[in-house]
Amino acid sequence: MRINKAIALAGLASRREADRLILQGEVRVNGEPVREPGLLLRPGEDRLEVSGRLVSWEAAPETEVWALYKPKNVVSTLKDPQGRPSIAQLLPRSAGRLFPVGRLDYDAEGLILLTNDGALAHRVAHPSFGVEKVYLVKLKGVLSRQSLGTLRSGPVLAGKRRQGMRVEILHTRNDKTWVEATLREGTNHHLKKAFSSVGHRVLKIKRYRIGPVELGDMKPGEARRLGGAEIAWMMAREARRK
Question: Does CATH place domain 3-55 in 3.40.50.11690?
Answer without folding.
Answer: no
